[in-house]
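Exam revision sheet. Question 4 asks you to relate a sequence to its structure. Input first:
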Amino acid sequence: MTSPSAAATGRRRLLPWLLSSGALLALGLPLLLLSFGRPIQDLGAPPTPAAQVAPEAAPFQALSAPPVIAIQAGHWEAAGLPDELAKLRRSTGASYGNLREVDINRAVASALATLAEARGWKVLLLPATVPPGLRADAFIALHADWSDSPAKRGWKLAPPWRASPASRQLARALAESFAAESSLVRDEGGVTIGMRGYFAFSYRRFKHAVSPFTPAVVLELGFITNAEEGASLARRPEYWAGLVLRGLEGYLAAEDRNRADDFRPAVYGWVAASGDSLYAREGPGEGARRLWPLEAGRAAMPVDESGDWLEVFVPRRRATGWVRKSEVQGAAAPLRLPAVPATGDR
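Answer key, structure tokens:
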């Protein structure tokens, strides 16, 4: 049994500890609450320190002539990726029979480089490794796809999460070029989270990524597992390069290099549904198909917008959907940030 004197001594020792702990709690709790409310600008990345300038807010400097076009042949020299992307060194691309995606990517990229240089543009032909903070008038990552079904076919493309207006315009111009070919089909609904989170876009996560001011797109030309597309991709690289070139010409003709706001990616804070009956939709409009309910109070990350609509990424579902801006409100970032791995293309 503890003696009265020992108990008194224990109380005297405990009192300063309680006082200091209370002071720390009083100081720490407001800071903790503030950290909960801080908007997160990148999926899977820590918040930007207050003293650090966000990459999107850095001073913008327009590029000078001639146009600079960066063409990445997907998976080419993947074994040489830097340590920060070591997990992708084995991402050597799809293969089917005697077709290898990386060979197709290289052939189309080389043909495109030749065509672009003939236009007087400056061309950067890149392997998997991207020079840190790469600035260019356009960055295009070329890939080919694979499927279990030999009937699967079609092209698809995607700009980054929170794309700048210039990235969106580049994607539209390329899509219009491919859509103009009656012999080709679009892989509707085929764009994946992995494409939009392509490692070369992720300047907040990796040093070897494009600048936030570089309009960027990842393009899946077609399926090597489809007999018709696979043969065309392998035998006609100049044809596919010509489609990309046509889209680039349309984009460069319309874009003003000096319009800084066109090149700044959007930055959003987290949001949550303001009511109990909000459903995410497949596209930005009331006529778009309803996908799943957005639970009230559960944080979602906006990644794009169109008029009165926001596209939000829901970490728990690992999916995105569109909601009206008027139906969501600002929300604190989740305590556990979503872990979005670096992806090679898909």
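Marking note for examiners. DSSP finds six helices and 14 strands in the chain.
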